[in-house]
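Per-record layout

source: Alishewanella agri BL06
name: Helix-turn-helix domain-containing protein
length: 60
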Amino acid sequence: MSLLTIEQVAALLDIPVIRVERLTREHLLVPVQNDAAGKPLFAEEDVKRYKVLAERLGGL
């Protein structure tokens, strides 16, 4: 399982970092763990599934 930082998720989804933080607060993107600094890390597979779902629902 590949883990992504908030910045990497933002790049993959092509959205601003602040939006990834909001999606995390709203539990639309759920981190699998936190790094040493306490920042969330996301499973790459989960982020890709979210991207597909969001595109089906009308886009990010």
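summary: The mean pLDDT is 93. The first strand starts at residue 3 and ends at 4.
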